[in-house]
Amino acid sequence: MVDPRLALLVFAALVAVAALLAWPRVGLVARVARASRHTERVLVEDALKYVYTCESIGRISTLESIAGQLEVSTGKAVGLLSRLVDLGLVRSEEAGPRLTDHGRDSALRLVRTHRLWERYLADRTGVPPGEWHAEADLMEHALSAAEAEELAARLGHPAWDPHGDPIPTPGGELPEVERLTLAGAGPGRTVEIVHLEDEPREIYDALLADGLGLGARLDVLERSDRMVLVRARGREWPIAAVVARNVSVRHLPAGASADRPAETLLDLSLGDGGRVVDLSPACRGSQRRRLLDLGVVKGTEIVPELVSAGGDPVAYRIRGALIALRREQAEWIRIERVVQAMEAVG
Fold first, then answer.
1. Cα–Cα distance, 132 to 118 (Å, whole number)
2. pLDDT, position 340
3. CATH fold of the domain at 38-99
């Protein structure tokens, strides 16, 4: 008979080994992943993308900032910049490194692959939002241009990543996007979140933990240099100004309210018709795929026809078929009432 104490010790040892290997950020697996990023090609591409990011926001990159971003020595950063110059991707100017046309095209290909992979993770997997950016940081170096285009085709050639950033076209075109941050939103106005900055990770995680996501509505009550006081879902809370600057929003028309969200299938009574406007950003992965496979896309008309004895699920007529959806699923489907749409036309 096995000694229980010995079995317990063996189990504890196995748990300790597993923790040593898999512990987030400090385990051996995480360390190997970080080390794999420090290959010469990956570092050159990361440096190129960082120079592009700085240029896109009107900031000059420096040796020190490149070294800090890539977690390398200043001497290593000098070598990386020299390599970018030798490759014709960057030219050295007195004010700092500047991208050549070839360098900008190459950087945009990395950005395109990164954002496509984030879109893939959001729509086709169950990977948590807080991990999308780090996963895409790895894959942007692993996918070839042909593989990136194959991925784009599988995803239906999306125009936006799950954070609200535009995805560059295969030709390197990127639309100009004017950003109003929550820190600059007008008090007394209702806003809708259109973009969440995913770096630094700590701030992004805090935003997610607060229930903020694309499409979420907030009533802006007060604003100061230190914080923005908002209200939503019957709750008021302050958001630090440094955090609010990572949230891009758009003002909604007068009369809009965070406590009066867009209508969903849940708002329809039996026999009422609704036309799909979009799916909530909260609907991701396999759940989103299932709804899309059922034909729940923009413009589809849906009618609730049967309700179960307990009230959940409800059977909806979708493209001629009767489909049962739970309350959670129905709440993801934003609609406009068909009657309202007809009245608006009239």
1. 6
2. 47
3. Arc Repressor Mutant, subunit A (1.10.10)
